[in-house]
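Run: sequence + adenosine-5'-triphosphate -> complex structure.
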Amino acid sequence: MRYSQALLPTLKEIPAEAEVASHRLMLRAGFMRKLTAGIYSYLPYGLAAIRKVENIVREEMNRAGAQELLLPMVQPADLWIETGRYEKYGPELLRFFDRHERESCLGPTHEEVITDIVRKDVHSYRDLPVNLYQIQTKFRDEIRPRFGLMRGREFIMKDAYSFDVSNEAAEASYWKMYEAYKRIFTRCGLKFRAVQADSGTIGGSFSHEFMVLAETGEDTVVFCQDCDYAANMEKAAVSLRKQEKIERLEQLEKIQTPGKRKVDTVCEFLKIAPSQLVKTLVFMADDQPVAVLLRGDRQLEEVKLKNLLGAADVEIAESSQVYDITKVPTGYLGPVGLTIKIVADLEVAAMQNFYVGGNEKNYHMKNVNLGRDFQVDATADLRQITRSDPCPECGGKLKLTEGIEVGHVFKLGTGYSESMEATFQDSDGQDKFFVMGCYGIGISRVVAAAIEQNYDADGIIFPVPLAPYTVIILNLGLKDEKITAAAEHLYRELQRQEIDVLLDDRDERPGSKFKDADLLGIPFRVVVGKSLLNSGLIEMRIRKNGAVEEMTPDKVIPALLSKIADESTEKTDDP
Ligand code: ATP
Ligand code: MG
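>> structure
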């Protein structure tokens, strides 16, 4: 591509609305433009990066035996009603009526549509397994779209669905995808980890997320420093440490805590540690109130609560809601005498003589004991793991880091096939439900994640496999015949070698050409300028480490080809 003819609008200013590096750099490097909240137009440069990811994904999915198809974005509500998800999916599902008053939605994911196809067109065990995938635009009306392509409302996803005859076969399909994902993210040049993920109420360990390790990640990943354990924090189970039992249960007492409503201020006032206090939080779980008891210094893991309650949605209740339900002002709620559903974290169940809210303004209670003073409906692991907890698998030391979820593999089982009555005839002549799996990759998010891992003060530093252009040639002597001829020659030659190359033939100052080349993050920069005239040399620079070499024109192409080969993450021969 000739820069003079490209729509590649780079920005000097730092866009104010962008909070993270990838978002800022994608706007500055002319990747995309925002149309409205969470919805972007991909400009040619951004689309080229997306295509690079798509091609790697396609090659590896095909190699793993999956077949590409393309499903509609608009889906009839009826299909979603069959699986019960029309109700359950919540406001992320954009619903609308067409001119015939038929209710529809925009696809946030395609389990229903694909299961409908397979139930109609796949009939026998002989046709299985089948794994179908697409690369397509999804719509999710995210409550907080942010960070540009990282969390959009409209975004590009690769979604695959496998159908198998049995559990064992489905597990084999699962691990095949797991391996394909490892190859995909390795080929993208990303630093990533596969971690155990929450699989909701289905249970089991058959869900892994692929996390790109980057500070701006919205997920927290827990690693063990002594064994292979790695999990999303949502999933990481906290084992209860041995607690010293105090033999004597002391007398329950109501104590004054005037105006003290927060854990810290109550503890300061009473001169106790937050670990001696139990906080009572009220959540609305699918519109039903539930009180959650946690030690004062702990954080709730909402996913664990959701799983315990089997709820589609849990949300912290507003103060006014809590007051309406309990008649207790904020900050003074406690479990003694509370009549709504109560669930307690494991740790609380093991505490004795603790402090709680007094269920009356300006009061707390001391020497409270579960069992004697109040009952709970359930005790379970509900809190977030911390770095000082032991590894759930080996008891070793944990490390917590941020990660960006770029992919997710999930064994679904027969949930969808049962609710949609999708069956095949097995070898024994019996009709059986397909055993399913689903596998997603956030294509547009991968590009953002790659930038989060690869940038500096001057701009993006693309890994070669994702770079829209591998080489940029700067012609710094547009009016000089010799310089222009050399630049044009290199441009044609690289094109002939099928290297993606951008020729900066704009009538711009050298300074701004250098700046743009750095901002765009193109891995190799070739400068054809004065030194060609003075000493017959052309400069080659590697964006990643700033290494510069000068060479005669005939050496440039071989040098580039060998450097590109070193940096490429070629596909290996066998899966
Ligand atoms: P998240 O927890 O980040 O919302 P999810 O669990 O909803 O993700 P999946 O339904 O598993 O995501 O979707 C598959 C993949 O699609 C994710 O791994 C992620 O890479 C990508 N993805 C999901 N939501 C978005 C979004 N709003 N914008 C961009 N990519 C997304
Ligand atoms: Mg989501």
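>> summary
The first strand starts at residue 32 and ends at 36. The two ends are 34 Å apart (CA to CA).
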